[in-house]
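This entry is retained here.
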Amino acid sequence: MSGAAWAPAVLCAALGLLLGSLPDRAGWGVALAFAAMWVATTGAMAIAPSFAAWVCAHAAHSSAACWIAALATAGAQYAPERGRARSARWFALAAGVCVAAAASPCAAAASPWAPAGVALALPARWLASRGAGVALKVAASWLLAVALLSLVLSARPALPGDVPDHLE
């Protein structure tokens, strides 16, 4: 699997951790916002050829958008509870768009299982209810590091040692 396929998976995992740390009522609303935006964006790409063409023209940027959204979503784990609940809806909407765009037919490496990462909300909610919320912050730190490294490494130019000799 290429790095482009990991971006939506890490984003959904970060959203799952964020969902687990939210109160029940807010968590359901955020999960529904993610699902609605994912379905709406996928439907718009299927129905409107001009929107699908626009997404395909900008497919190279969908991976970077997913990494940036993953950074913001994982970083929200460190926000105060009130700010976390407010911003989670916006992160869910952004995640829905990014995951749908990354799974478009013209994407470099579509990953159909990426939205399953949102299921991390279940064990995250269990940990948060048991008072082990620090485990969610540790997992969010790991996702922050992965997203930041992937974003930086994907933005730098290929060096001669990084490219196999037969492609030069």
The longest helix spans residues 24-47. Residues 5 and 109 are 5 Å apart (CA to CA). The chain has one domain: 3-156.
